[in-house]
């Protein structure tokens, strides 16, 4: 049997949101927890997952497992992204722009969490439209997934 508590993980985990959700039934309300978690290796690999459970630790464990299954890889250019990108996912719009070294991560809550665990050090971002954390997380992942390395962009233009 493997002991998951003592083995170091290759991924950094960060909880974006932990919400108590209710379902109304005949006898009253049933409470559950929904966790939104981001995992990343700090070198261009990141994933987002949502998990639900009867208690908070269970939902977090499920969210981490889902996030690890949904990991994407995107290109990094030094400590930033290779080019500007704007993506719409559901009601959320995320705009990302490469920044000069030393700028830092200029981003709000959800987008900042994802970019930090992904390993992006210098970037300018703006989240428009929805303020829903899950929608913003999926829009950020879609934006990172749409990035192309400089070599790929040159081949497309030819």
How would you describe the overall organization of this protein?
It is a single chain. This protein is α+β, with helices and mostly antiparallel strands. It has two domains: 61 residues, Double Stranded RNA Binding Domain, CATH 3.30.160.20; 75 residues, Ribosomal Protein S5, domain 2 (2-Layer Sandwich), CATH 3.30.230. The protein is built from four helices and eight strands; from the N terminus they run βββαββββαβαα. The strands form two sheets. The chain has a four-stranded antiparallel β-sheet. α2 links the parallel β7 and β8. The longest helix is centred in the middle third of the chain and has 14 residues. The radius of gyration is 17 Å and the shape is elongated. The protein starts with 11 loop residues before the first strand and ends with a helix. The mean pLDDT is 90.
Summarize the structure in short.
The chain has 158 residues and is α+β, with helices and mostly antiparallel strands. It has two domains: 12-72, Double Stranded RNA Binding Domain (2-Layer Sandwich); 74-148, Ribosomal Protein S5, domain 2, CATH 3.30.230.
């Amino acid at each position: 049997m493997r002991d998951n508590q003592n083995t170091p993980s290759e991924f950094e985990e960060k909880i974006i949101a932990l919400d108590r959700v209710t379902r109304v039934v005949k006898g009253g309300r049933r409470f559950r927890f929904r966790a939104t978690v981001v995992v990343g290796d700090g070198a261009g690999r990141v994933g987002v997952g949502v998990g639900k459970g009867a208690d908070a630790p269970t939902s977090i464990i499920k969210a981490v497992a889902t996030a690890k299954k949904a990991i994407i890889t995107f290109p990094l250019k030094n400590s930033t992204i290779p080019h500007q990108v704007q993506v719409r996912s559901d009601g959320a719009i995320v705009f990302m722009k490469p920044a000069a070294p030393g700028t830092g991560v200029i981003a709000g809550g959800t987008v900042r969490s994802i970019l930090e665990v992904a390993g992006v050090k210098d970037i300018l971002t703006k989240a428009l439209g929805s303020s829903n954390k899950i929608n913003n997380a999926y829009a950020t992942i879609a934006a990172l997934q749409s990035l192309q390395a400089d070599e790929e962009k040159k081949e497309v233009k030819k």
